[in-house]
Amino acid sequence: MKERIEVMISAEAISKRLEEIAEQVQNDFAGEQVELVCVLKGGVVTLVELAKKIKLPVTLNFMDVSSYGDGTESSGHIKILRDLDEDITGKNVLLVEDIIDSGRTLSHLRELLLHRNPKNFKICTLLDKPDRRVTDVPVDYVGFTIPDAFVVGYGLDYAQKYRNLDYVGVIHFDED
Ligand code: IMP
Ligand code: MG
Description:
Largest sheet: 6 strands, mixed
Strand content: 25-35%
Structural class: alpha/beta
Bound molecules: inosinic acid, magnesium ion
Helix content: 10-25%
Number of helices: 3
């Protein structure tokens, strides 16, 4: 099997869209400091690019989680593999994700972070696959809404590969 990547969203289109989102963030947080929280590893490329475009005081923080019980309805607790190293109480928090698929991970992460009483809490995702949604979760900034396909690039991986592509593409498996 040979892996082939077909471009879905170009580097230029992503850059332009993130520019627009950065402007919205600037308007919404009006001169205040914003803490960008990245969910590792997929969100890291979007977080860095967005951070460079937001003309506000920005701090960066990272967390890593794994979700239990994909497939079992009610067992959606998440395990924190790496927690934030600063308290977010009273802060403006913008959670940055690569993609929202079922929504399970994000909805539990949202609950968890809201319990820490941030001043403001918003969510940004580069990609949204609404066809696959199982758990509703409010998202404030969506880069692109895409059909149900497995995509890689711009932080997203297939078997840990392709995160470094500067575009988003659909992966195909061809017979050699
Ligand atoms: P969910 O929304 O809880 O189902 O989890 C979303 C996570 O699944 C994302 O953060 C990605 O790590 C992964 N994921 C979902 N769809 C894709 C895809 O098309 N390509 C790569 N990773 C994906
Ligand atoms: Mg992710």
